[in-house]
Amino acid sequence: MTMQDDYHASRRAHIEEQQRNRQARRRRETIVAISSVTAAVLVVAGLVGFGVYKFSTMKDSGSTSAAPRTEPSARGSGDASGQGSGDAGAPIAGEKDWDTKKLTRNHVTTPVRYPMTPPVGGDHAAVWMNCGGVVYQKPVPDVNAVHSLEHGAVWVTYTDKASAADVKKLGGKVSVTPYSLMSPYQDQAGAIMLSAWGKQLTVDSADDPRVNQFFTRYVEGPQTPEPGAPCTGGLDER
Predict the structure, then answer these.
(1) Element of type H or E holding 166
(2) Which domain holds residue 111?
(3) Helix, coil or strand: residue 112
(4) Counting Cβ atoms within 10 Å, is residue 205 exposed (0-12), middle (13-18) or buried (19+)?
(5) Model confidence, pTM
(6) Exposed site from 11, 159, 214, 225, fewest CB < 10 Å?
(7) Are both 48 and 108 inside the same structural domain?
(8) Separation of alpha carbons 110 and 112, rounded Å
(9) Residue 60 burial (CB count, 10 A)
(10) Where is this chain compositionally biased, Basic and acidic residues type (predicted)?
(11) Which residue among 46, 67, 88 closes a domain?
(12) ∠ CA 90-189-200 to the nearest 5 degrees?
C-alpha cells in the first residue's frame, strides 16, 4: 500500500466517523425534542385535569351548600316594619296617576293652588314636613307635605268620616314606617286617601289590602323625584 492509499483510507475513516457523530447527535437531539414535547403535553394535561377537578368541586359545593337566592319583595310583606305585601308589578285598582313631567318642582314662598286634593305634586315650600313615620293630630300645610312627597314619602290623610279604629290602625302603620306621614284633611273626597308623588288612592277602610300595596310600591318608590333626600330635619307641627 502506497502512501497515497494510506491517505485515502485515513480520509474515508475520518469522514465516516464524522457521519456517525452527526447521526448520533441527531438521534440525541430528536430524543431530547420528543422528551420536551412529551413533558409539555403532560404538564398541559395535568393543568387541564386540575382545572376540571376544581370546577367540579366548586360546582358541587355550590349546589349542595348554598340555598338559591330569593330576592325579597319591595318593602317586606306586612311584617313589624309596617310594610305591605302587594305585588310590585301589578297595578293597584282604583289608583289615580298624574304625569310627573307636568308636576313642577319649584320652591315658592306663596300659596299654591293645586289641581288635586290632597295635592300629589307641584311647586312647594323649601322646607318639607317631617315624614319619618310621623302622625300629625292636626292638618299640615300642603306646600310642606308636597315637599315630603318629593322625597319619597307616602302621605295618609283622613276625614271625620273615617272610623276611630281605622285612624288608629293607619296611625300605627305610619308610626313604624320611615318616609310616611299622616294627618287629618277635611276637604278631601274620600274618608281615607293615600298620596305619593303623582299617585293617589282612595279607600274606605284601613283593612283594604290596597293600603299595603300602596305603601309597598311608593314608600321611597320609583316615582320619587329626589331619592335619598331626608325626611327629618324639616317642619314639625304636632
Answers:
(1) helix 164-175
(2) 96-218
(3) coil
(4) middle
(5) 0.65
(6) 11
(7) no
(8) 6
(9) 10
(10) 1-20
(11) 67
(12) 25
